[in-house]
Amino acid sequence: MGIRILRGDITKQHVDAIVNAANTSLLGGGGVDGAIHRAGGPAILEECQELRRSRYGKGLPTGQAVATTAGRLPARWVIHTVGPVYTEDEDRGDLLASCYRESLAVADRLGVDSIAFPAVSAGVYGWPAESAAAIAVGTVRETATNVSDIRFVLFTDEVLAAFQRALD
Ligand code: AR6
């Protein structure tokens, strides 16, 4: 298993699966979620709506993951996961770790060989970059998986630098 850190737009990645930092509604939003739905087209939202009807009437719980088509994206699948909102009052690091573990479990069930993750919760959800990176890299390293190519695709200098420090 190899872990790499790249700078860029995750929607451009030619991998089997990209991970979306979604919200419980699964119905889209801003940040990387908005970018994925825009670039992938309506087929992703249609499948998310179907998942809400069939399996997740109350939405996808925080820390869990589920796959849909990637529509027009170069990837084959989008794995949607819901990161925790950061708060100083409570340690939600286990929920953030769960996003990475559960995404890899979904990837393994799909037979995915390559996957790209964004920095889940490190944007709108307010997670400090250093901590988000340590949890992401630490969890992926500790998780047994058949995925051989794991990439973190990062959008900002601050988050990129934090992931580089976490990997070193
Ligand atoms: N490729 C890679 N990373 C990106 C991209 C991109 N195209 N665009 C943004 N990022 P965020 P969250 C980075 O806010 O904190 C949405 O509205 C961004 O710079 O997308 O988990 C959802 O619907 C940051 O480092 O996700 C939820 O409501 C990282 O992706 C909520 O935001 C995550 O930032 C989830 O918040």
From TrEMBL:
This protein's name: O-acetyl-ADP-ribose deacetylase
PANTHER family: GANGLIOSIDE INDUCED DIFFERENTIATION ASSOCIATED PROTEIN 2-RELATED (PTHR11106), MACRO DOMAIN-CONTAINING PROTEIN (PTHR11106:SF27)
SUPFAM superfamilies: Macro domain-like (SSF52949)
Organism, scientific name: Glycomyces luteolus
Ranges of residues in domain Macro: 1-168
SMART domains (UniProt xref): A1pp
Pfam families: Macro
